[in-house]
Specification:
By secondary structure, this protein is α+β, with helices and mostly antiparallel strands. It is built from 3 helices and 3 strands. The protein has a 3-stranded antiparallel β-sheet. Strand 2 and strand 3 form a beta hairpin. The radius of gyration is 15 Å and the shape is globular.
């Protein structure tokens, strides 16, 4: 079991600030994490599963693309 802390999420370029992270938790289903004393930690497998479940920019059809 590998734990990630806020600094790890920033280092992996997942998030840059707590405001965005809290919005993702409330609105986008990002794992809320677990309190370890006064620190919040996330299970790496939960974060990885969330990342994989998110649509990518290339998965949406292009706006104005010709329909065939």
């Amino acid at each position: 079991m590998r734990l990630l802390f806020f600094g790890d999420l920033c280092e992996h370029k997942l998030v840059q600030n707590w405001t965005t992270l809290n919005r993702w938790i409330e609105e986008k289903g990002f794992p809320p994490g677990h309190m370890l004393g006064r620190r919040r930690a996330w299970l790496a497998r939960e974060v990885e599963a969330w990342v994989e479940s998110q649509p990518t920019e290339n998965s949406a059809p292009l706006k104005g693309a010709a329909k065939r």
